[in-house]
Task: structure prediction
Amino acid sequence: MGARKRISAESRKEARTTQYYAKLNNVPTSPRKMRLVADMIRGMEVFKALGVLKYSNKEAAARVGKLLKSAISNWEQKTGHKADTSELYVTSISVDSATILNRMRPAPQGRGYRIRKRSNHVTLFVNTKNEIQN
Result:
């Protein structure tokens, strides 16, 4: 690795120490379905978002709820504070497409229909309200 790349990589790594996030890779749900759940909690206070996810009847909501708990735990571990008050918010959540498993389904007259089993990556950032404004 060259010096320029090393310097930029170290600066990115240093910036990540002040961000509080959790990442979920290769979730076997289509990104479109996961984005519906992500849109429900974007910008919400974390404990309100946990309540919304708990009572949502979407299958992806359970996975995002677990991811949100992990992000809260990461924030508590990095800052040393407890997240018991309503100061912590979901600052951003992004859903990106991951690998697609291509399967074939038999069709009439020797043809085959393609089935695309999609998956996604979810990244969730949390932070306090006063640090978002600064």
